[in-house]
Amino acid sequence: MSADADMVGRLAPVSSFQPAQWARKRLFNNWYNALLTVVFGLAIVQILVSLYRWAFANAVLFATPQQCQALAGKGACWAVVLQQGRFILFGRYTYDQQWRPALGIALFLLMLAATCFRRLWGRWLLMGWAALYVVFGVLMWGGVLGLPYVEQSLWGGLPLTLVLSVVSLTFAFPFGVLLALGRRSSLPVIHSLSVGYIELIRGVPLVTVLFMASVMFPLFLPEGMDIDRLLRALVAITLFCAAYIAEVVRAGLQGLPRGQYEAADALGLGFWAKTRLVVLPQALRLVIPPLVGICISTFKNTTLVVLVGLFDLLNTASTTLKDPLWREEFAEVYLFTALIYFGFCFFMSQFSQSVERQLRRRQGP
Amino acid sequence: MSQTNLPSSAADSPIIIALERVNKWYGSFHALNNIDLTVARGERIVICGPSGSGKSTLIRCINRLEEHQSGRIVVDGIEITNDVKNIEQIRREVGMVFQQFNLFPHLTVLENCTLAPIWVRKMPRAEADRAAMRYLERVHIAEQAHKYPGQLSGGQQQRVAIARSLCMNPKVMLFDEPTSALDPEMVKEVLDVMIGLAHDGMTMLCVTHEMGFARSVADRVIFMDRGEIVEQNEPKAFFDNPQSERTRLFLSQILAH
């Protein structure tokens, strides 16, 4: 009987939300649930209160390292972020030139924002992105337009992380699509090369590929010839990502009904026209969520370049902590860094969801 | 186009499709068994037969959606071989309408129609748009040109699919059970379009069970069973006086009710 009543309650359209009723039904419907609610409620309050005390109430914003050490962990020392933030963000980049990477990142964020507007999608946006590549490069390297040259080994922090992830994804994407098409090819040589490549790369961790690129690869080069460290890391991440993108895209290609291929064939479209105009637009739409997953994990995987001596955002953060003055403030530094990573990753996942929603609204399920 | 022009004898020949002793197997299943068939320009042919009889396979061999294993197929003077260029050239001249419509869901109705003219025939977009609108009007769906296929009913989608094929200005139209996936009330709107096309002199090969359509527009009805052409005749004789026992049985089954 009570189950019936419950069913009726659940099926009836909820006209208004009544907190008291909701709480009684969901949180206090019998004695042990009530107990759990109270215990966990107290625990949550306790955690929030101490977090608040640490992060705000007892925290200092403007302080010397000595004052921070005097806090002895009772409160956050955000001074470290204020005073070391520039190093965390830009690494060893020439200090009085750091406005250049800052401007580059600002332009990058501006382009990201523009990309969120579906209305702006088109040739101009693509050209904007291409222009951003050039502008970013000019800003970072300098040596032209009166900007002093900044050596690439000084690059670090957020700009380096962005360069590593954006550039390698840009190249990995077309390469991955080609590998996926190759794996579906009926030509035996192309098929087996693609399968071999994909399985080999997926069979080893990224760290291995990075080490191969930075330690072993130079052994094969002629004496005196050296390829830049950043470039080697970029190549390694690109090659690694491409294999994963290939498998995701292949899933999309297989998800497409046979009839789509046949209709394109029957109209006389050649292989490349068919692939570009009919197959890929649909196949890629099917796999937006896992593709964005790859973007997110690549963004985070760039932290592994610490192993080949590059100063990405996470590495500059941990370098800050090597300073004896700030050794104690690891929580503040890592929270600050985590927040930046989270911001980018959260943006990517929200962006993919909004694109999916828009496509669904336009074309139906 | 000039270098792809055929010797005038082939282009002027009254025969547009010729199949000679065509065989196809799926594994050990003999899907097409020594098929001989010639189709004249402007001829309207209906192919019927029980499921699995090879009728769809037959018309899908004509534009190489299926590969035949022996025999010859010549379309508009070009023999179908493994040569991809030949196949693409034949496909430009042979339109096909599928049971499941197979419209491109990511493109609007108009874009579906202009895709092949623009990318295969290299037609300027404005011209392709104009031609597409003309064909969409002809299938009475011009007002939906900017919708996506997912927003249309089955009958409307199939009419768009017919318009999409016509936009390539094909010499032959193949119909693979064009009304079988439709709700009953939508069959007529599609058949009306097909009848109009037949009256305009299009060469048509239709795999269909719409015997009313066969009776009213076909020049010839072909009955297939177990991969063979069992019987072919002009419609009146075919329906009123079937020669073979298998044809009589099939007709009694589909005309019984």
How does the overall form of chain B come out from the CA principal axes?
globular
Q: Helix amount of chain A, in percent?
A: over 70%
Give the topology string of chain B: H per helix, E per strand: HEEEHEEHEHHHEHEHEEHH
Question: What is the subunit organization of this protein?
Answer: heterodimer
The amount of helix of chain B comes to: 25-40%
Protein structure class of chain B: alpha/beta
In CATH terms, what is the fold-level topology of one domain in chain A? MetI-like fold
State the major sheet of chain A.
none
For the secondary structure, the number of strands of chain B is 10
Strand content of chain B: 15-25%
What is the C-level CATH assignment of one domain in chain A? Mainly Alpha
The most extensive contact between chains is: A-B, 22 and 28 residues
* Rg measurement of chain B, Å: 18 Å
User: How many E-type strands of chain A?
Assistant: 0
Would you kindly provide a written description of the structure presented here, covering whatever features stand out?
The complex is a heterodimer of chains A (365) and B (257). By secondary structure, chain A is mainly α. Among the domains of chain A are: 96-149; 158-310, MetI-like fold (Orthogonal Bundle). Helices cover 73% and strands 0% of the residues of chain A. The longest helix of chain A has 34 residues, at 330-363. In chain A, 27% of the residues are buried. The mean pLDDT of chain A is 85. Chain B is globular. With 257 residues, chain B is α/β, with parallel strands linked by helices. In chain B, a hairpin with a 2-residue loop joins β4 and β5 (78-79). In chain B, α5 (125-138) packs across α6. Mean pLDDT of chain B is 90; it is low at 1-9. Chain B has helices at residues 8-12, 55-62, 84-93, 109-119, 125-138, 154-166, 184-199, 211-217, 235-240, 245-255; strands at residues 15-26, 29-40, 44-48, 70-75, 78-79, 94-97, 172-176, 203-207, 220-225, 228-233. A six-stranded mixed sheet of chain B has the order 6-7-8-3-9-10, with helices on both faces. Chain B has a four-stranded antiparallel sheet with strand order 2-1-4-5. The longest helix of chain B has 16 residues, at 184-199. The interface between A and B is medium-sized, with 22 and 28 residues.
